[in-house]
Design a protein that fits this description.
Largest sheet: 5 strands, mixed
Distance between the termini: 70 Å
Order of helices and strands: HHHHHHHHHHEHEEEEHEE
Number of strands: 7
Shape: elongated
Structural class: alpha+beta
Number of helices: 12
Oligomer: single chain
Number of domains: 3
């Protein structure tokens, strides 16, 4: 069997290997954003399949033509050409995957890029196992079936590689969905942007190491040891990412709790002051009644009216402390409604929220707090007629929270996604609200109606 025939046969097998690899690569990139895909999952799978085939076909035809020119190739030149062309094929593919994912996923661009870069690391691990398992397959046939044809060995090798791809895909898909997805949604895009350097560094170091092995005849032991180190580094990186995300979220949770406690303290302080004033007024009431009777008896009505007007000024404004039965949310509402009124923003509140509704108080405070923070910031930009409407209602096992505010009609969007006017990406508050909605199998929707901005959050209540 000539070298051209062998290469042609290998190329046909490798086409399906490449197809499986590209297909799995695509799906992994979508895995952490399973709830942010703007199209149906079935359509995405069809598009990924069609794109992978259409992308691979020109490369397959090109390689087949080059391999047919057996006479002009020296083996060393062929190896160099093969490696350069495969780098180019993969890099173009990575870029196209990012652009397509960017179009189909409604999420921050840095988060999408970070996931694509992580999946390139998956490709590195798969490449290491490919080289290692190929040597095992060839060693097995040389030892036990040395009479087997090369086509049989190549077929067995490709089948083993495809099994490895599937296993690695399932492992990474589980890690991405189970660990990366929830942490990614609640992490600041600025933090994600800085973390992008880690998968890039891993990819560069892996390929530098790969080229050293190809250009210098390394021993089998050294190659196996390198594969082992790469796998250890990959597992350590995954652990590092998970711990880093958890640490970031713990810090965020701590800040949220501190903010909640501060608001509750403000609320209780105001309540105590109001109660103290009420006691003082009740204590002084006898003296005031005596003065009233004196003016009435002497017919000094003008003096009585003047005294009453002065007395009214000493009576504190009523403290509307009960917006809902949930104490934590009530403190949050008290704080933000107070802020809004100090900015001359009219607030209309209709909240139905029991003390225990099956949703963590901190999560409820994050939803109300971030939504009202954004609403106040938007309404502040208007010169007059500022307003905020707060409504929450329980229907069956669903809690619906709707917060409306008027704004200056200036928004920044990327497709259907509203972006922060400060950072240009998805705001931290928005990310937190989305993550909590996802945690309770709910949904969140941001939309505008003329000069009205509306945030609608639906959370599924616990059956407990």
């Amino acid at each position: 069997m000539s070298i051209t025939t062998i290469l042609s046969f290998f190329l046909e097998l490798f086409f399906w290997y490449d197809f499986l690899f590209f297909f799995c690569f695509f799906l992994l990139c979508y895995m952490p954003f399973i709830n942010d895909i703007t199209r149906s999952k079935q359509r995405i799978i069809v598009e990924v399949t069609i794109f992978s085939i259409l992308y691979l076909l020109p490369w397959h035809i090109f390689f087949e033509y080059v391999y047919s020119l057996e006479g002009i190739w020296e083996w060393e030149h062929f190896i160099i050409f093969n490696r350069v062309s495969n780098y180019l094929k993969n890099w173009i593919f990575f870029a196209l995957v990012f652009l397509i994912a960017r179009k189909n996923i409604s999420n921050n661009v840095w988060k999408i890029l970070f996931v694509v870069l992580l999946v390139t690391n998956w490709e590195c691990i798969q490449g290491s196992l490919y080289a290692y398992s190929s040597r095992l397959v060839f060693s097995f046939f040389v030892k036990f079936y040395h009479f087997a044809e090369l086509s049989v060995i190549l077929t067995a090798d490709i089948i083993v590689q495809m099994i490895i791809i599937i296993i690695l895909f399932l492992v990474f898909a589980w890690v991405f969905y189970r660990f990366l997805k929830p942490h990614l949604n609640m992490t600041d895009p600025g933090v994600i942007k800085k973390l992008c350097v880690i998968p890039v560094l891993f990819y560069v170091l892996y390929n530098i190491n790969l080229e050293i092995h190809y250009h210098y005849d390394s021993s089998v032991v050294m190659r196996n040891f390198t594969v082992f180190l790469i796998l250890i580094f990959a597992l350590t990186s995954v652990y590092f990412f998970v711990m880093l995300f958890r640490m970031y979220h713990n810090i965020s949770k701590t800040k949220q709790v501190e903010q909640q406690l501060k608001m509750q303290d403000e609320h209780y302080t105001a309540l105590q002051e109001y109660v103290a004033d009420a006691r003082r007024i009740r204590h002084d009431m006898r003296q005031h009644l005596s003065v009233f009777m004196s003016y009435i008896d002497t017919g000094k009505t003008d003096n009585l009216v003047e005294y009453i007007n002065e007395y009214k000024k000493t009576i504190p404004d009523s403290v509307d402390v009960l917006y809902c039965e949930n104490h934590a949310v009530n403190a949050i509402l008290y704080h933000y409604i107070g802020r809004a009124k100090s900015e001359n923003i009219n607030v209309d509140v209709h909240t139905e929220l029991p003390k225990n509704c099956g949703i963590n108080d901190i999560d409820l405070c994050i939803v109300f707090g971030n939504s009202l923070e954004n609403a106040i910031e938007a309404a502040q930009k208007l010169l007059n007629n500022r307003f905020i409407k707060i409504c929450s209602k329980i229907t069956g096992n669903l809690l619906t929270i709707v917060i409306e505010n008027n704004f200056d009609n200036i928004v920044k969007k990327d497709g259907d996604e509203f972006l922060s006017l400060k950072s240009g990406g998805e705001g931290i508050g928005t990310s937190s609200i989305k993550a909590i909605a996802e945690k309770y199998d709910g949904s969140v929707q941001f939309d505008t109606d003329g000069s009205i901005f509306r945030t609608t959050v639906i959370l599924r209540l616990s059956k407990d």
